[in-house]
Amino acid sequence: MKRYLLQRVSFGIMSLFAATIIVFGMSRATGDPLLLYAKPGGYGVSPEQIAALKKKLALDKPLIVQYFIWAGRVMRGDLGNTILAERPVSKVVMERLPNTLVLGLAAWIFATVIGIPLGILSAVKRGTVWDYLGRGIALFGQALPQFWVGIVAILVFAVYFGWLPSGTRGSEKPFFPDQIKHLILPTITLGWTPMAAYLRITRSAMLEVLDTEYVKLARAKGVGGWSVIGKHAFRNALIPPLTVSALILVGFLDGAVLVESVFSWPGVGRLALDAIFNNDFPLLTGVILIFAMFFVVGSLVADFLYVVIDPRIRYVS
Amino acid sequence: MAEIAQPLPLGVRARRAATPRSVLTAFRRWPIIPLFVLAVLVFAAVFAPLLAPRDPTMINLRGRTAPPAWDAQWYEDHPNVNFRYPLGADHVGRDVLSRMLHGARVSLMVAMVALVAGTLSGTALGLLAGYYGGLVDELITRAVDVWNALPFLLIAILAAMTLEQSARVVMALLAFAAWSSGVRNVRAEVLGLKTRDYVLQARICGASDARILFRHLLPGVINTVVVIASLRVGGLILAEAGLSFLGAGIPPPAPTWGNMISEGREYLNTAWWIAFFPGLAIFLVVMSFNFVGDWLRDRWDPRLRQV
pLDDT tens across A149-178, in order? Predict the structure, then answer.
């Protein structure tokens, strides 16, 4: 088990390392970064200033050296300054991160609280109304484009009925009723697709487990209906949904970019979009790295939980 | 004397009359409706220039944000709009239906090219990883993990903005989105297959690695590949739409479903149809692909239920 966990951690670190190489490579492959700051021969820029800037940004050194200088800074938490506002990237990202986390957490709770129980229900009551309801919801969640759901939700609930606000974060004070109101539509929009994924996977895992001998044995011994489902079946059916949680997390990060754009939500996803449209490379690389970090940490947590839930892993490796 | 039914000759099945029940069973067993939707899509995509009532890029400011044709009142009030837009017009008076038909072309083509490229490379890598094992395997599976850990959408937008905005770039990006999904399953499959006796015998007969890979292992994984690919199409169409929506897809005058939604977003209050219909089209198409994929999986490879 120790070996397994060590392996997972080292893979996580390797993934992060590779992510930095890709991000760095992309930021350099797209042209001379100096051009983002100043145009050589541009108006009011002397060659000396260019040279000084080049030196300051370490652009006069070979690419590999540049990478290690950059990576060293990143390790110390220094992601450089944004080009537009000339502020530390880490600070700018940290300001926006809580908003994305709140949205992501709300969406994740929405997805699990509805997806998993409904998945169980539709497996247990296979072929009934519950099953069709669950599968219907899953179907929509997997096929509807998130941004379109957001737009239609705004159209119906904000424009037509006027029940909920159409976007932004709402009032400044945290956990104000106003903020909760602002949270509802983005949460459902972002959470629907992962909810569908959880539902489908829980349902098929449950169906499989309900068909096994030990569940039949428990039933034959006279264990009551929901007790079998809760104690014998559900615990074993929990592994597949947990395994996909890491993938679902990535889905959240990609989804956050779209959903935050639709709802003008001041989170990291929108920050990244703004960074792209402003050609603000330091900011963008910062966001991508933080996203990758979240993912790696998230999959590590899933791996740990995996061991807790499935004792077979403890002994096998 | 009761008549004894003659046994039918071998290979001939008794033809039963279709009853309402048998029709229902057929609908349950075969993905008839999804296949129909996809057939319509392919038809629309192929014959878009013939089917579209108008030029999808023709601007007509008189008919801007004209509602769908069933709003007869509006057309009576605006007698100088001499064309009834079947599904309404967008903010510069382009016909939404024509744009959707041409958009179907773009979406389908982009998704298919990306799918084929992604599936081919993913399958090849899965075969190599499973067959050679060792360092090759380690490198390939690591690469898949790392790639899956990156926020694809951001990298795709970044690449689209810095390279160029064109259909080619979008296809390449989506191929990158597609390659990693099949590698693991193919690899796992090959790990099982390569220990079989027939592979060993092929090797004893002096077959080269390439021959074993293509003649003996590839046929064994092809079902898995097809199932995974079919489950992946929907996601690719959604990804393409998402890129277009964020303004990093195929550049504007050309209609795509994603950029139609994006353009229609600002006119939600006054002209809901601009964004609504393309979204509906995406939904129907993606759902149909998912249905067909599920169906294929249940038939060919039920073990993949968790993909």
Answer: 888 888 888 777 877 777 777 666 666 777
Domain ranges (residues) in chain A: 93-309
Q: Are B162 and B200 in contact (CB under 8 A)?
A: no
B144 and B77 fall within a common domain: no
Domain spanning A93-309, CATH class: mainly alpha
- Which residues 239-268 on chain B approach chain A with CB closer than 8 angstroms? 241-242, 245-246, 248, 258, 261, 264-265, 268
Given a contact cutoff of 8 angstroms between Cβ atoms, the answer to whether A134 and A122 are in contact is yes
Domain match, B252 and B162 both = yes
Q: How far is CA B96 from CA A147, A314, B100, B272, in A?
A: 19, 58, 6, 11
pLDDT tens, A200-212? 888 888 888 888 8
DSSP one-letter string for chain A: -HHHHHHHHHHHHHHHHHHHHHHHHHHHHTS-THHHH--TT-TT--HHHHHHHHHHTTTTS-HHHHHHHHHHHHHTT---B-TTT--BHHHHHHHHHHHHHHHHHHHHHHHHHHHHHHHHHHHHTTTSHHHHHHHHHHHHHHHS-HHHHHHHHIIIIIIIS--S--SS---SSTT-HHHHHHHHHHHHHHHHHHHHHHHHHHHHHHHHHHTSHHHHHHHHHT--HHHIIIIIIIHHHTHHHHHHHHHHHHHHHHHHHHHHHHTT--SHHHHHHHHHHTT-HHHHHHHHHHHHHHHHHHHHHHHHHHHHH-HHHHHH-
Q: Please check whether residue A144 touches B, CB under 8 A.
A: yes
Displacement of CA B52 from its chain's centroid (Å): 22
Taking CB atoms and an 8 Å cutoff, what residues of chain A touch B279?
A: 144-145, 148, 151-152
Does B200 lie in the same domain as B156? yes
Question: Does residue A292 sit at the B interface (CB-CB below 8 Å)?
Answer: yes
Give SS3 for B78. coil
The reply to whether B23 falls in a domain is no
Close Cβ partners of A92 (under 8 Å, ≥ 6 residues apart): A82, A85, A271, A283, A286
Q: How far apart are CA A211 and CA A219, in angstroms?
A: 11
Q: Quick check: B261 and A151 CB within 8 A?
A: yes
For B75-107, the pLDDT digits (tens) are: 777 777 677 777 777 777 787 788 888 888 888
CB contact (8 A) between residue A250 and residue B148: yes
Query: What range defines the domain where residue B288 resides?
Result: 103-300
What CA–CA distance (Å, rounded) separates B186 from B131?
10
| Domain of residue B272, CATH code | 1.10.3720.10
B190 in the same domain as B66? no
ipTM of the complex: 0.78
Does the pLDDT at position B1 exceed 60?
A: no
User: Does residue B282 lie in a domain region?
Assistant: yes
Same domain, B144 and B287: yes
The per-residue pLDDT for A147 is: 85
Question: Same structural domain for residues B168 and B149?
Answer: yes
The CA distance from A293 to B124, in Å, is: 29
Q: Which pTM value belongs to this model?
A: 0.81
Length of chain A: 317
Tally of domains within chain B: 2
